Amino acid sequence: MRTVCDLAHKVRIRGGVLQLSLILGLVALIFVVATVLVVAEDRRAARRVAQRRQARLASLGEVDPLAAQRLRQ
To answer: Which residues does 65 contact at the CB level (< 8 Å), separation at least 6?
Structure first.
């Protein structure tokens, strides 16, 4: 036979489980957002490096760095 104390204890446990799942969900969400931001920043940095490289090559007179390879093939 269940008493009021047993029911209150189960509610607290469920509340704790609910709080734990909310916390874990928020941590996972923060992790995903941080990952997306890092990947986006890495892509922007790679794009900046490529643009600098192309500008450097253009200043030397070479517009397309792969042009020589295409002519050889």
So the answer is: 53, 54, 57
In one-letter notation, the amino acid at residue 66 is L
Query: Is the Cβ–Cβ distance between 55 and 65 less than 8 Å?
Result: no
Q: Could you tell me the residue ranges of all domains in the chain?
A: 4-72
Q: Is the pTM of this model over 0.85?
A: no
Here the contacts of 43-47 (C-beta below 8 Å, separation 24 or greater) are: none
Tokens of 41: 């920043």
Q: How far is the first Cα of the chain from the last one, in angstroms, to the nearest whole number?
A: 85
* pLDDT higher than threshold 80 for residue 28: yes
